[in-house]
UniProtKB/TrEMBL annotation:
This is Altered inheritance of mitochondria protein 6. The gene is AIM6. It comes from Discina gigas. InterPro entries: HAT_RTT109-like, PLC-like_Pdiesterase_TIM-brl. Residues 1-20 are annotated as: Disordered. Belongs to the AIM6 family. Keywords: Membrane, Transmembrane, Transmembrane helix.
Length: 348
């Protein structure tokens, strides 16, 4: 030992713990609290999981696991279940990937078929001659599917025998009284096409009459209301004064002539672009244009006739939506649309 140095003394048994001991203790305490927190979290998670299970056992689990093909799930008229009918017209409906059915599934209460007479047996459907095919006919795309839907919505069961014979359901399960408007646009000469169109409508007349008709005194509503437009011959349409189950698509811009009444024209239509005017992508619908719409729609309604505008803007979307809003606000009865999804998403 060197002079002046003092020997090191061992730590006292009652003194402060060494540094390694303090670190060990801190680690032990931290681990304890971490384990306690994890345990508490697991307990709470189990509690909430049990709560969810208990709740889902009451209703959510039943909904989630409900059998899709059970007799408790379906019913005779369920084909169009949950579809709310809305006042939109499926413009050029035959262009859709699934004609008629796409429109009905979106809730559209009106569809349109352009028909061409190039044989004595068939009416071909398409926008122009180059788009026609032997398979796509008025019968295959519209008459046959409509008949099948209507038969399904009017089943023959032990219960239906108890309802009045005059009660016939339309295509919409939610509102069986809602008619489906079927616009038939004559593309070939009216006088020649007219008899063949009437013949094609026969399956919708008998043995069950699904057609809205005029009985000589009043219009009797039915599940399907047929409107002739395009080259359709007005004089031939109104020639039968005692009974007819088709109506003329009157010119909305010419109702003051007095020719068109609620008995021969349930709906009147005109071109928005031609009669109301163009609306540019930076423009609003002007007050003059609004007054024109208001006057035409008002005149139709005074005569008991519904109003529709075709050739409305489709692009830009902002302009289309503005025009849609104005037309609905001014009381137009059928909104002419190409985009079914957008139209069905409006706040009707």
């Amino acid at each position: 030992m060197l002079l002046g140095s003092s020997p090191s003394s061992p730590p006292s048994a009652t003194g402060s713990p060494s540094r390694p001991t303090r670190i060990t203790q801190i680690a032990f305490n931290s681990g304890f609290f971490l384990l306690a927190a994890l345990a508490l979290s697991a307990i709470l998670s189990s509690f909430f999981s049990l709560s969810r299970v208990a709740w889902s056992s009451d209703i959510q689990n039943i909904v989630h696991n409900w059998p899709t093909n059970s007799s408790l799930t379906t019913y005779p008229t369920a084909f169009t279940r949950d579809i709310l009918p809305i006042p939109i017209h499926s413009h050029n409906d035959y262009w859709r990937h699934v004609p008629l059915f796409s429109a009905i599934s979106a809730g559209a209460i009106s569809v349109e078929a352009d028909v061409w007479k190039f044989s004595e047996a068939d009416l071909f459907v398409g926008h122009d001659i180059s788009s026609l095919s032997r398979a796509r006919t008025f019968k295959s795309l519209y008459i046959a599917p409509l008949l099948k839907i209507l038969k399904g919505q009017n089943p023959d069961t032990e219960f239906t025998h108890k309802q009045p014979e005059t009660q016939v359901n339309g295509v919409f399960d939610v509102d069986p009284s809602q008619t489906l408007h079927l616009f038939v646009d004559f593309k070939t000469a009216g006088a020649e096409t007219f008899p063949l169109v009437l013949a094609h409508l026969e399956p919708l007349r008998t043995p069950v009459n699904y057609l809205t008709h005029y009985n000589g005194a009043a219009v009797v509503p039915g599940p399907v209301t047929v409107h002739f437009t395009g080259n359709a011959p007005f004089d031939l349409i109104i020639s039968n004064t005692t009974y007819r189950d088709y109506f003329y698509d009157a010119p909305l811009d010419n109702l003051l002539s007095g020719k068109y009444t609620a008995e021969n024209s349930i709906i009147a239509s005109t071109s928005f672009e031609r009669d109301v005017g163009h609306v540019g992508w930076r423009d609003e619908v002007s007050e003059v244009q609004r007054e024109k719409i208001r006057a035409q729609v008002g005149e139709a309604h005074r005569r008991g006739i519904m109003a529709r505008y075709w050739e409305t803007p489709g692009w830009p979307i902002s302009v289309r939506d503005k025009v849609w809003g104005v037309l609905v606000g001014e009381g137009v009865d059928l909104l002419n649309v190409d985009d079914l999804k957008a139209a069905s998403s409006l706040r009707w």
